[in-house]
Amino acid sequence: MKHLFVDTNVLIDFLANRKPFSLEAATLFNFALQKRLTIYVAAVSFNNIYYILRQSCSHSDTLHILSELEEWTTTVDVSKEVIKKSLQSDFKDFEDAIQYHCAKTIKKIDGIVTRNRKDFKTSTLAVFTPKEALSLIES
């Protein structure tokens, strides 16, 4: 397993140091920094992360954090086709639909990492919790 799409909730866990979830998220990023893993992120995640982090960080600090995230990950564009598919999907949460359809555009993706597996119950891609993803990477 080398190519994982990471849901916004896991990204925020890491960047905002949300305990107890941040340790597993940080380990995923550590693997990415070691080049053992490529992390993909939907472009739409950046504005959602900004909104959350901005509640506890200054504007410039938040932009610095997002700049680092952009360097550590591969950003997946949200295209017109992704939006169309998301609008027509049976996902209960529109943001999850966008992330799912962004992940589907990556041919070499091994799966989606999220803390909320139920949000991706109709996924045709593998869906892992951070703990499950770490177990597969380490094995």
Care to describe what's here?
The chain has 139 residues and is α/β, with parallel strands linked by helices. It has one domain: Rossmann fold (3-Layer(aba) Sandwich), CATH 3.40.50.1010. The protein is built from seven helices and five strands, in the order βααβααβααββα. The protein has helices at residues 8-15, 22-33, 43-53, 59-72, 80-88, 94-104, 130-138, and strands at 3-6, 38-42, 74-76, 111-113, 127-128. Strands 3-2-1-4-5 form a five-stranded parallel sheet. Helix 2 (22-33) packs parallel to helix 7 and helix 5 packs across helix 6. The longest helix has 14 residues, at 59-72. The radius of gyration is 14 Å and the shape is globular. It starts with a strand and ends with a helix. The model has no long low-confidence stretch (mean pLDDT 94).
Radius of gyration (Å): 14 Å
- What order do the SSEs take from the amino end to the carboxyl end, as H and E? EHHEHHEHHEEH
- What is the helix tally? 7
- Give the termini separation: 10 Å
Give me the CATH fold name: Rossmann fold
What general outline do the C-alpha atoms trace? globular
Class of secondary structure makeup = alpha/beta
Q: What top-tier CATH class fits best?
A: Alpha Beta
User: Stretches where pLDDT falls below 50 for ≥5 residues?
Assistant: none
Mean pLDDT rating:
94
Question: What's this model, at a glance?
Answer:
This protein is about 55% helix and about 10% strand.
